[in-house]
Amino acid sequence: MSDHSVELVYDPAQTNVSRVASRLSRIGYQLAPWQEDFDRVSDIIDKQRDHWFGIATAAFLAVNAMWIGIALYAGEASGISSDNEYFLRWIGAVLGLLSALGPGSLFFQTAWQAIRVRSPHVDIPVALSLAIGTIGSLYGAWMGSGHMYFDSLTSLVLLLRIGRYLQFRAQSMAKSSIHQLMRWNTQIAQRIDGNGERHPVPASRLVEGDLIYVEPGAIIPADGTVESGESSVDTSLLTGETQPVVVRTRSGVVGGTTNLSSPLQVRVDAAGDASRMGKLMAMVREATTYRTPWIQAADQVGKWFVVVVLFLGCATWVGWTLYANVTVATQHTMALLTIACPCALALAAPLVITIALGRAAKRQIWIREGDCLEKLANPGMLWLDKTGTITLGRMHVHQWTGEDRWLPYAFALEQTVVHPVASAIVRFSEAYDDFNCQHSVRDIIQERGFGVTGIVSNRRVTIGNEPWMRKQGVQIQEHDFVQARSIASKGQTAIWFSVDHLVVGMFAVGDALRPDAVETLKQLQSLGWKLGILSGDHPEVVLTIAQSLRDQGIVLEQALGEQSPEDKLHKIEESRRTTKQLIAMVGDGINDAAALTAADVGIAVRGNSEQSLTVAPIYIANPRLSSLLELFQASKQVVVGIKRCFQASLVYNSITISLAVFGWIHPLIAALFMPLSGLTVLAMALHSRTFLNQDLFESERLRPS
Amino acid sequence: MSVLYIALPAALLLGAAGLVGCLYCIRSGQYDDLDSASLRILNEDIENEPK
């Protein structure tokens, strides 16, 4: 519960929600039905007011106790009538009592709840220390002599409350990084009523069947169907697709995507948590409550810590009572109990992971299970799918063997065709197109699986494969075959190009490596990962890609082609059996689903987001392969960050505890230092560089070589 | 009878009155949002609204 949330699964047959709720409230957690986001904000404001209340009251009591204390110390030095001393002591003791029972009651409450469920909690030593102070000051007032505790007690309460408040602030700030993400739909939507008028309403109030108006540039607030309007939509958030998707009347749109070009009227099909984005957010939210091994370890260590501290407290008190007197012993014990709060320990791991998840989500890396971040810190074997993972997954012209003056003809003809190869040729020849001389195109004949032919500026232009050339009566010469074979040997497809029944050149078309693939794989390798390719593509194509990667100095353990989804699954299972290393798989959320599930950590890079996240704990929605690198480095930093926080906290606590045991720390100094350790950890976590190395390759390039 | 018996409770009561005022301010929400006040000048929409 160190991140203030709990996930609870119950069986409706055995119990009901109200019983669960009453059980939870018995241990101090009041349940309320799920509320919308702005209620959460008001909850934070309420808590903040409570904190301010406590601090104000504690400060008032502490300051007044302080000057009464000063009067008494002055009286001790210069003489004071015993009546006055008695009176001042009583007033001071009352102030101390008020402080402990008012602003200090927070600590007694949590400690009492922890004792009731018999689980050690960091507040137990603190409450004990406060109790000792209260009893001490009342006893001193009763006796009218001896050491005064009320001044220390009130200051202690004040400092503890301030510390708690600072912790609360930092924690809610850290959580807001995750929360901002889930607030994708708290914008204002334009609802159209029966009279056709637009009314702004919060997007969270939209229900199924509402008609909404979406301006260009606005985020579509809910899933729905377009009623009128035609526009293009940026869906990269969900699908990773960088090309805008055209939507028309009756096309479906997804909430969270951005409407780009013109206004749309959309009938809402699903809003809020029922929408695709809402479901995705729910998965990410789940990840933040996931108890990773490190968090469990921290909780365990924290509990033992409390027990040890209580034991040490008793030992200190007994020891100092025997060695000096009860007053000294009490003071030292108070200092020990106050300073030994292992809150830093309990805070560190969940905080670091939560921050990392939030930052990852901002870069469109959705993580469903928090512990994946911990797992990926140790390099192992990484299997990569080829198509769409290392390669762009779409056709690309690698080479043009003919003269450049023919390219405008190809551009003019292929523009009229909708086909992946045609658009690859269009993209390639676009740069050569001469705008001063527009080619006219007529008599286009197109045949799927063969090619296209037409009259371009009074010349017969034919583009297609070899059978298409024969069909169109193109004269083919021996060196054309040689050329076609050499292209095929590279794993690419030869697209023939003829003008007036003569072959003038060929396009070598094939899938291309992602621009950041080589750099990313190199970096992954230097992180210690072993790489392998599992592809469903033709073995020769895979070999060509593998060869070009090897030429760049990348060591591939294996590069396997013609792998069916089942083959991939077997391969992953086999490598899990044969090595103890971590097996990670990067692939398509749909075709590689089985393999992704079988791997220790599955990372989906294409396909739709919810489906990918159900089979793989991590989904990268952006088209950059370098996100993989960011992910792996981040996971390393997460573990390093947690370890560093652990070490800092343990070292800090052992030093302060031993100082306190030997009586070198005053309780007030202890109270000053206690929140300091927690705040140090918070600062360390917030400033950890997880996912912050934004321009990974940019900085790399800027470095003088 | 020392003057202390009157002066001290009186001082504490005066202080307590200040504390009550402060608590009232917190409860009424004056401290809930300390950030937006400084940004309000940038918001043109609320320019003419009565404060």
Describe the protein in words.
The complex is a heterodimer of chains A (705) and B (51). Residues 33-37 and 694-705 of chain A have low confidence and may be disordered. Chain A is α+β, with helices and mostly antiparallel strands. The relative contact order of chain A is 0.10. The radius of gyration of chain B is 20 Å and the shape is rod-shaped. With 51 residues, chain B is mainly alpha-helical. The relative contact order of chain B is 0.07.
Task: List the topology elements.
The complex is a heterodimer of chains A (705) and B (51).
Chain A: H1 17-26, H2 37-78, H3 82-101, H4 105-116, H5 123-143, H6 150-182, E1 188-192, E2 198-202, E3 211-214, E4 223-228, E5 231-234, H7 236-239, E6 245-247, E7 252-253, E8 258-259, E9 264-270, H8 276-289, H9 293-323, H10 326-339, H11 343-362, E10 365-367, H12 371-375, E11 381-385, H13 386-390, E12 391-400, H14 407-414, H15 420-429, E13 441-447, E14 451-456, E15 459-464, H16 466-471, H17 478-489, E16 493-499, E17 502-513, H18 517-526, E18 530-534, H19 539-551, E19 556-560, H20 565-578, E20 583-588, H21 593-598, E21 601-606, H22 609-615, E22 618-620, H23 626-661, H24 667-686, H25 696-702
Parallel strand pairs in A: 11-18, 11-20, 18-19, 20-21, 21-22
Antiparallel strand pairs in A: 1-2, 1-3, 3-9, 4-7, 4-9, 5-6, 5-8, 10-22, 12-17, 13-14, 14-15, 15-16, 16-17
Chain B: H1 4-27
Low-confidence stretches of chain A: 33-37, 694-705
Q: What is the number of E strands of chain A?
A: 22
Approximately what portion of the residues of chain A adopt beta-strand conformation?
15-25%
Secondary-structure element order of chain B, N to C: H
Helix fraction of chain B?
A: 40-55%
Tell me, rounded to a whole number, the average pLDDT of chain A.
Answer: 78
Oligomeric description of these chains? heterodimer
Our count of helices of chain A gives: 25
* Major β-sheet profile of chain A: 7 strands, mixed
Number of strands of chain B: 0
- State the end-to-end distance of chain B: 53 Å
| Beta-strand content of chain B | under 5%
> How far apart, in Å, are the first and last alpha carbons of chain A?
49 Å
Cα-based radius of gyration of chain B, to the nearest Å? 20 Å
